[in-house]
């Protein structure tokens, strides 16, 4: 027994006394650590589940048809859940038929992940494909619109493969890395079947490439009816260079092309699609209905007739005949269009007299595309992809190379003349009419004008000058 300033305490009482301050804080600290450990454990378990699901997407190249609802919910509510490892994913999805990236994707291993795409809505694949398809059949036309943000729809040989791969490298964008011709031939829902199988859910823009869709009225009609907000991207190219590239591409891929000297302007014979008429991009684009000739919304009948007449005069008699048949029966396209020329895809050089101008032109082009698509992060450096059959043995490659043409050779003068005549009409119609539509965006209009001005000028003048320099 002890006496503490007048109060007597037994040993038992002392044991029951409140613990000292140090002991108390030690106990609390231990309890807090246990709670923290528990929290950490459940956090790790939840991450492992999601990462496993995501890696199953990466490994197979396909996502499960639907994520379990708990996982979907978790991904929706937890912004820190890694939603995509872009470099892994593109490595798997880049099952590119026959193309190669000549300027290798820089920084693949250093790409940021997870991307901070908070400005984009989270897209999950909650509605199975069959239900989307049935809903479309039942009249809910635009039920799958949210799954298709953009489409690279043409023209062939105008850098569409580069565009698809380059956009797919952006942190906020996923793009199907092979051509999808579903809109031309199949049910309109089929395209989103590819989207759901090949692209991950999450905060991304989703897109596809089909370089012939711009020339295919069925594809344009389906876009208008079911995907009216899908942003279209259309590439053009100097008609002479386009024709040469297309012809040589066919040779490379083993097509039995006639000698170019035997190919006429009317494309009688087919020539596997390598037709001078197709370089008249205006004859195709007018069908979208973005210009007075393509739509009827003027209330002033005389003005309308005058406007339409002036525009019609930019088409050749043959083009006018086909427009007379086609224009009244096609659907007017509500889709926005981003128009570029292939030369705008060139990475600006780092030396030479006009380096600053080149850099400025390129930056403006990229900035306009960023705004058009609605992404906030910067694009990776430009690449150059050249599709065509690879891995031929040396003898076969040499045989095919020998059949390729240099369109600047004297013997192709006539072809160049036809292409330049068409190029002149294309240039005038695009600059005077098409780009004036509020639906049409051009990356750097000033530079684009300069480029199109050259569509009526023989590029061989420059090429031959370069050769002699
Ligand atoms: N960044 C860049 N700068 C300049 N040129 C470029 C670029 N990217 C692609 N290209 C050229 O575009 C041609 C291939 O076009 P596509 O991919 O649309 O071809 S395809 O329709 O998919 O077959 C092909 O043209 P040719 O080489 O003349 O055949 C590519 O070299």
From TrEMBL:
Skewed-composition ranges (Low complexity): 78-89
Entry keywords, A to Z: Membrane, Transferase, Transmembrane, Transmembrane helix
Composition skew (Polar residues), residue ranges: 110-119
Domain of life of the organism encoding this protein: Eukaryota
MF terms in GO: sulfotransferase activity
Residues reported to bind 3'-phosphoadenylyl sulfate: 237, 245
TM stretches of this protein: 30-50
Residues the record marks as active site: 157 (for sulfotransferase activity)
Disordered: annotated span: 78-120
The keyword Signal belongs to this UniProt entry's keyword annotation: no
Entry protein name: Sulfotransferase domain-containing protein
């Amino acid at each position: 027994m002890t006496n503490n300033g007048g109060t007597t305490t037994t040993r038992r009482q002392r044991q029951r006394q409140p613990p000292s301050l140090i002991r108390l804080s030690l106990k609390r600290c231990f309890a807090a650590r246990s709670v923290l450990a528990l929290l950490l454990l459940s956090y790790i378990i939840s991450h492992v589940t999601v990462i496993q699901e995501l890696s199953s997407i990466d490994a197979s190249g396909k996502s499960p048809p639907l994520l379990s609802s708990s996982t979907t919910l978790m991904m929706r509510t937890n912004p820190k859940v890694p939603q995509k490892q872009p470099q892994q994913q593109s490595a798997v999805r880049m099952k590119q038929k026959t193309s190669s990236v000549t300027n290798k994707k820089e920084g693949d291993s250093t790409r940021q992940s997870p991307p901070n795409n908070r400005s984009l809505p989270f897209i999950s694949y909650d509605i199975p494909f069959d239900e989307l398809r049935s809903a479309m059949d039942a009249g809910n036309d635009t039920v799958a619109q949210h799954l298709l943000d953009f489409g690279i729809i043409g023209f062939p040989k105008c850098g569409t493969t580069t565009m698809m791969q380059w956009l797919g490298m952006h942190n906020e964008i996923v793009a199907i890395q092979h051509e999808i011709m579903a809109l031309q031939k199949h049910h309109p829902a089929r395209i989103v079947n590819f989207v759901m199988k090949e692209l991950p859910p999450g905060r991304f823009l989703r897109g596809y490439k089909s370089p012939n869709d711009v020339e295919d009225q069925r594809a344009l009609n389906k876009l208008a009816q079911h995907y009216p907000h899908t942003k279209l991207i259309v590439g053009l190219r100097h008609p002479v260079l386009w024709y040469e590239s297309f012809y040589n591409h066919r040779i490379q891929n083993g097509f039995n092309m006639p000698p170019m000297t035997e190919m006429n302007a009317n494309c009688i014979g087919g020539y596997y699609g390598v037709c001078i008429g197709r370089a008249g991009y205006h004859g195709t684009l007018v069908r979208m209905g973005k210009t007075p000739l393509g739509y009827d919304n003027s209330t002033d009948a005389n003005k309308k007739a005058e406007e339409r007449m002036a525009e019609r005069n930019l088409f050749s008699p043959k083009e006018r005949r086909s427009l007379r048949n086609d224009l009244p029966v096609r659907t007017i396209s509500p889709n926005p269009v981003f128009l570029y020329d292939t030369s705008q895809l060139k990475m600006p050089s780092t030396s030479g007299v006009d380096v600053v101008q080149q850099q400025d032109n390129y930056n403006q082009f990229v900035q306009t595309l960023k705004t058009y698509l609605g992404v906030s992060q910067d694009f990776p450096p430009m690449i150059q992809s050249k599709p065509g059959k690879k891995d031929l043995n040396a003898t076969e490659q040499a045989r095919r190379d020998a059949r390729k043409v240099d369109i600047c050779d004297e013997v192709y003068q006539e072809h160049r003349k036809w292409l330049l005549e068409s190029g002149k009409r294309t240039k005038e119609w695009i600059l005077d009419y098409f780009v004036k539509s509020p639906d049409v965006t051009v990356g750097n209009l000033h530079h684009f004008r300069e480029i199109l001005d050259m569509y009526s000028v023989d590029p061989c003048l420059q090429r031959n000058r370069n050769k002699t320099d």
